[in-house]
Structures are given as structure tokens and as C-alpha cells.
Amino acid sequence: MNNEHLLDELLRGIVDVVSREELLKKLASGKKLRVKLGVDPTSRDLHLGHSVVLGKLRQFQDLGHTAVLIIGDFTAQVGDPSGRDSTRPVIDHETVAKNAETYTQQAFKVLDKEKTEIRFNSEWLHSFTGDRSKGVSDFISVAKNVTISRLLEREDFKTRMDAGTPVSLLEILYPVFQGYDSVAVKADIEVGGQDQIFNLLVGRDLQKIYALEPQVVMTVPLLVGTDGVKKMSKSYGNYVALNDIPHDMFGKLMSVSDELMYDYYALLTSENMDEVKKAHPMEAKKRLAMLLVEKYHGSDDSQLARQHFEQVFSKKELPDNIESFRVEHAGKLSYILVASGLCKGMNEARRQLAQGAVRIDGEKVTDDAVFEPKDCVVQVGRRQFRKFTI
Description:
With 390 residues, this protein is an alpha/beta fold. The protein has three domains: 3-223, Rossmann fold; 244-314, no CATH class; 324-389, RNA-binding S4 domain (Structural Genomics Hypothetical 15.5 Kd Protein In mrcA-pckA Intergenic Region, Chain A), CATH 3.10.290. The protein is 45% helix and 14% strand. Helix 3 (48-62) links the parallel strand 2 (34-39) and strand 3. Mean pLDDT is 86; it is low at 83-87.
């Protein structure tokens, strides 16, 4: 494959590239390239939105290059302002450490472990911001070369300031911290979501300050969440986690709109879109769900997830092996929903009741009345069932 054709393959699905000519030059050099991706462990789950950019890294790995996956244990405590309309809550160190534990295991569902270098940016950012062996930290030296006007160019800052929404100093500094990651690992290429373009370009600026060849910047489209409105994010509750059990993953994917389904096909699979659009939308959606469940859980689980979905939702039958819960005393229904594990807390139980998401033997229940013990099947939402017994 010649380099021009290779370039076209690598740029498939890419929103921004800075620049095509630089990327072609790096590919033609014959050097094993270091392709960087940074992820902040703000939750314990990677989701399908992450898999879009992970898939681009895997393309480079398949060509013999090295993926440098940076776990932002330092930057997660600062808070990335990209795409945010308010300040992101600060996360404490212990929570970040717990979240980071599962990130690498999940990333290897997509990446080749043998061609992946895992780094934590606290390794260099602690000394970057605090090393006084030379009188001042490297951060002070860099800060002298990064102007406030440059940092305030980003659109999300402008939008928030125009709306009178506060922008913290830490958020303004975030791009500098992320950009220094590229200096520390000597990245040749950095890949990220399209909302990351500003941060990635700052990485180029900082590499120039350190007399390094600037990285090529590549961005991928943002995957819209299952709500069809906002980008996929755990904080928005519209995500499909890579670690979701097969039944849940299949069910969540079946809940997306027909229009959004085609975006999922384009961003998450290599299927021929002309062929996909010839199929009936319901059958196409089931195939999408099967493809993705198979990718992360295997063929057998994919088949079982489809059977479960069709049994419960298409044929309106109850699933097999429903967990039982013994109700010994009468009590508020919300309390019993929590005690049985159908809801995580009283607020959720009351919300599910108010939204009409609770059914007893198929009948919708909205009142938080006293539940008298009886044998019945209770359903919360589309996927949660319990057999209540006396």
C-alpha cells in the first residue's frame, strides 16, 4: 500500500487533521511513530464514545506503530473544560485512583496490549508544576510563553463568559497540562475527539517551545449518546459502557433512534453503509447491537442477548431465571424497590414511580402506596425484574 493510499485510510472518519502534509511526511519516514491518546479517569467505565478514538489508535498499531495511552490521573483532578457549559466538579485523588484501575483492562478490548505504552501523567506533571531545583518549575517557564489571549480563543470559554458563567483559572490552565503530556512522551501524533482540537493544538505549541517536532493532530467525531442529544458521557447517563453486560448493552443500543443508528454504524463498525440502509431499520438495529455485543463479549453472548431482547421486549414475555425477593412485611413500595435491589436509593425509586416506569404483574404503578406482601412480578424500567414472594 503506497503512502497516499495509507493516508486516505487513516483519515477516513477524521474531522480535523493538522496537517495532512506533516502526517504523510511522518508515515514516509519509516519511523515507528508514537501515537498519543489521553483519557481522564472521571468515572470507572470507558464507553462506546471512547472506542471511536481507540479504534483509530488500533489502526496505527496494526501498521506497526506504538499507541501511548495516557491515564490523566493528574488532569482528572483539574477538570477538562472541553464542551462543558459549566465548571466540571473536582474529583479527589482516591476516586481518580479507583477509576483508573479498570481503564487499562477496558482499553485492551480495542488496543493491542503488546503495542501499547501506558503512562500516568502525574509522573511528570507533579514535577512540572512543583520542581524548584532550578529556582522555578518548568510550568513557570512555559507559562511565560503561552498568552492569555491564546487560551481564551477557545469557543466554550467564550460562550460561558458571554453567558456570565464562571470560568476557573484551573480550567484555563488545563490545555497547558494536557499539552505538556505531548512534550513528556514525545508524541508524533495525538488523536482525540473533535471537542479536543484546542487542547491538541496547544500540545503542538508546547513541543515547539521545547524544540521538538510538533505532533500531528487528528480528531474524530463525537458519538452522540443514546438520548440522541448530547455527546455520550456517563455524567449525562446516555452511555453504553464497554463493560456493560451483554443484555444491557444490547438493550441500550436498541433504544437509539433509527437516525442515530446509522451514525453508530459509521463510527463503530466497518459495515458497508449502502447495504445497511437497504435493510429494515429494526433488523439493521438488531444487527448493530449484535455486532457490538459480539465485539466486546463474543458470538455466543451476542446471540443470547438478541434472544433475551426478543423474548422480553418483542414478544412481551418475561425473561427466564428472574431473581426472587421475599417480602416479609407490608411497607412503602419505594422502600421495597430499594430493598429488593430494583432501585439504588429512595430518590430513584420515587422518580421511577413518578415516571410510570414501575409495573406489578404488567400493570403500571405510579403511587408510592403501602405494598401488601403477595406473589407477583415487579418490573422497573425495561430490563429490571424481580419475583416477589411471601
